[in-house]
Each structure stands twice: as C-alpha cells, then as structure tokens.
Amino acid sequence: MLVTVIIPTFNRAALVTRAIKSVLIRTGDAALDVLVVDDGSVDETASVVADVMTHHPEVRYLYQENAGVSAARSAGLQHLLPQTSFVTFLDSDDVLSEGRLDADLPCFTSNPALDLTYARMSIVSQIDNETLLPTPDAQVTNVVGIHLSCGIFRRELVERIGLFNPELRQSEDTDYLLRIFESGSKFQQTDTLAFYYVRHHQNMTLDRKEAGRYFARALLLSVMRRRKDPSLVLDKPSFELKQLQEIEAD
Fold first, then answer.
1. Which Pfam families match (predicted)?
2. Phi, psi (rounded to 5 degrees) for 237
C-alpha cells in the first residue's frame, strides 16, 4: 500500500527540508511517496529539495508557476503515481508526528469499506529541528482541529471528491474536508497525533481578518451545497468548526 504525502510549498527553503525529514524518518513500515509541489518559489527551495532527492528516491519534486496553495494541492492530486493507494497532506512548515502512518493505516485493512481516518493535531509555538518535537518551553495545544493533515484518504475518495477550489486562497482545506464529510464518506476518528502545526511569523493564517473571511466563505459554500442538494448531510468527526486562531485563543 503506497502512501503519497503531498507537501505544497512556496518560498520556504528554510523549512521544507524539516517537513520532508519528518516524513522520511517517521514513516515506519509504510511504502512512501513524498511529492513536493513548489508553487513558484524564487528562493532556494528547488536546490534544497534536490539535495534531499539525491539520497531519497522516494521524494519527488514538481514545479508550477505561482497559482496559490489550492492549485498546488490539486497539482499533487493530478500527479499521483499509478500505485498510490492512500493520500495525505503536510504543509511545508509543519512536522509529521512519530508513528502517524503506522498507527492509522491498519484501520483500512481491518475495514475495507473505510474511506479515511481522521486524527488529532498539536498546535505548537516551537519545534526542535533535531528531535522534531516541541521544545521544552514551547506552548502546546492538542486538539481535534479541522485540518487537511489530520486525514489519511483512500485514493478512490479524493478522486471522487475532485480538486481544490481555486477561488479560495485560504481555508481551501476546510472546504475540501467539508465536501468529503458531506459526501457520505465512511471515516474513523482515531486518537493518533497526526502532526505538529508550528506557529511562526510566516504563517498565512496570522492575518486573522483575512483568514476569517475565507473560513466563513468555506462554511457558506457548504451550506449552499446542502441547500441545493438535500441528500448531502454533514457527517463529520467531533471537531468544532473553528479556525485555528480561535482554538489558540481559547
């Protein structure tokens, strides 16, 4: 069972190798394909990823002209390998947690009808770049958040749901998850810690007003879809429909 981890990135040469490293050393027994989608970076992203690829043939690099994170994630879905069975996502400034794939992939073996697993996440203020764990003085908040990286998705599911909404510069992952949970997909919520969401000054979601507008738009689109098609029912894991800034402020 090959798992493709899609890592979209833009001008994060200083961070993307940490994200890739966290996947490579914490994969366990899973067969792995790491696809880095470069959304038009003008820094050293291409060269630092190329350095990793010389030692890790399971890492691939895809460049596109800058078109936004929705287009980058969609490009990743459009370049899955023929043998890919499962898909997950990791942002280039975040860190995969240890044992994440080994913990949740067996759920699909025990339940062949399962479309996805959905795990917890940890919002942290600092990560040790050597241990890839929160530093001793880091602020840590563990939550069941609405975030794409919490899910492992069967390939057939993402092919059925389709691509990301290119009109959403933010909360495109919220929109995608809501489309999944409206579709009648079969999911299993697990206690696994999926990843560390690392706060830093470059986070797109630091602009709370703009993030709030896109988040509200994603929620409105969900309501509009369900009004148009009453057969759509939002059956989701026990996360609250809150953007990350609201969780951090609680």
1. Glycos_transf_2
2. -60, 175
